[in-house]
Amino acid sequence: MTELRKGENTEVGSGRVTAELRAVGDQVDLSALLVTAEGKVRSDDDLVFYNQPSAEAGAVRHLAADAGIPERIEVDPSALPADVDRVVLVGSCDPDDATRTFRDVGEVRVSAVQQGADPVLFRPPALTDGERAVLLMELYRRGPAWKLRAIGQGYSDGLAGLATDFGIQVEEPREPSAVDRPGTGESGSTRDTATTTALPEPAAPAAPVAPVAPATTAGSPMSPMSLRKPPLGRISLDKGGRVSMGLDKKDRELVVTASLEWDGGSDRRRRQGADLDLYALFVPASQALRGTNAPGTLAGSRHVAQGEPLRPGTAAAPATPGTAKKGKGADVVYYKRLGSVKSRPYIRLDGDSRIPGRESLRIVRPDEQGYVLLCAYSAVSNGIGSFRSFGAKVVITDGRGSAVTVPLFENTRTRYWVAIALVDFTTADGATIHHIEAYSARMTERRPVLHPDGTIEMNAGPVEFKRR
Q1: CATH number reported for the structural domain that contains residue 41 in this entry
Q2: Where are the alpha helices (DSSP H) in 415-457?
Q3: Torsions phi, psi for 122 (to 5 deg)
Q4: How does residue 244 score in pLDDT terms, banded at 50, 70 and 90?
Q5: From the record, what ranges are coiled-coil (predicted)?
Q6: pLDDT digits over 422-450, tens only?
Q7: What percentage of the chain has pLDDT greater than the value 90?
């Protein structure tokens, strides 16, 4: 394998190149730009990404991640028209959440694979100055040959700002901001919008490029391109996985539904008992903290929730251990406290099912929510079988085309509580759903506790038996 450092290049053949993106930490999206020798796209059709997965009759294709295979861009250099000088690969944070930056990403790796050749790997330098997009690699012409160059240039205004620099019209205007310029350290400091963003050969100086007018079709301006992610469709989380669900937090008609579903697993299990209960532990936005630990982290008994209030001036971090609401006065919606969608907590359970089926709760006013932890309780009368043996899972939908299943993977016995999923509403433009699957200690009836910073403490809440 050939590993490139920032600014290095290597020659490749004319066969199809597949670029794969892998990231540790927050999700990073992969896209590609078809760029002319002037450093600009020819039209908005030259951006290949999740909303527009193909260009030039499939010469450049976006392939979504699937079943352990990472997100990919496929390029057939021999099928590109002569006026496409290079294909630039771009990594970007979620465009629906302006709070996500590469500071939340532990490592980014992009590899280019070509049949019959060694893979080419590039690890961009750490981006810690608020960058939300990065130029990863470019596949570019040099006479009749093709080369790959490692770039590693960060942008603080994300895919929208980067795409605009290359001549693409985006749907919403962006705020001016300072972005990185190549050559000012590992990640740079500011960006000069008067020079081309496509890097030249190392020996050649950057040439100024005249501003390009918005792309047109038949003499009239094109409609701005939407970078907002489409609905998720139906997906199932892997163990420990997470996914972002875009939500309009000003939409008063929006209803997020979270359901605990179980089928009893088998006739024997159903005869023995299959009474599960859905609990929603919640921290309202007025009390939520952005802590130093990632939301969904399992905390110990001495954990002190500290951090910046989600709403400055409305919340304060507990000063001593034990100040989280751990007793029966804790913020919770369950079969004895159904909640309300017309007033706080803006969460309501539809009722108690004592046979296999479904218990659902509705969450409205996402702007009023901080963290919601979805838990299941197994009544003592059910016996010692695992939650998985009941076929239990959580399904979260937004009514707008996104449905996320959070399954269980572990077989446990004599465990009466499981924290299944955390819904983090503190992101700017939606919610992040985390797979948790944390179980109570053996034979313990204590309920989990949700701290104001979104961390979870097992075996710390009240004991409340339920018998048939």
Answers
A1: 2.60.60.30
A2: none
A3: -140, 130
A4: confident
A5: none
A6: 999 998 668 989 999 999 998 788 999 99
A7: 46
What DSSP state is assigned to residue 84? -
384 CB-near residues (< 8 Å, 6+ apart): 413, 414
pLDDT (tens digit per residue) in 26-71: 778 999 999 999 999 999 899 998 888 899 999 999 988 765 678 8
Interacting residues of 19 by C-beta distance below 8 A, sequence separation 6+: 30, 32, 72, 73, 74, 75, 89, 110, 111, 112, 113, 136, 137
Q: HSE, CB side, 13 Å, CA atoms: give it for residue 315.
A: 24
pTM of model > 0.70: no
Which of 155, 186, 221 is the endpoint of a domain?
A: 221
The verdict on residue 468 lying in a domain is no
**Which DSSP string corresponds to 100-143?**
--GGGEEEEEEEEEETTS--EEE-PPP--SS--EEEEEEEEEET
Tell whether 210 and 250 lie within a shared domain.
no
| Higher-pLDDT residue of 295, 198 | 295
Q: How many helices (H) and strands (E) does the chain have?
A: 2, 32
CA atoms within 13 A on the CB side of 353: 19
Average pLDDT over residues 267-288: 87
Do 239 and 211 share a structural domain?
A: no
Neighbour-count burial of 384, counting CB atoms closer than 10 A to its CB (0-12 exposed, 13-18 middle, 19+ buried): middle
| 448-468 residue pLDDT tens | 999 999 999 999 999 877 654
Q: Please tell me whether residue 441 adopts helix, strand or coil conformation.
A: coil
- Number of structural domains (the chain) is 2
Q: Which residue has the tokens 């004895």?
A: 336
For residue 295, the enclosing domain spans 233-457
Q: Are 171 and 227 in contact (CB under 8 A)?
A: yes
Rounded CA separation 232/103 (Å): 25
Backbone φ and ψ of 403, nearest 5°: -140, 120
pLDDT value of residue 324: 54
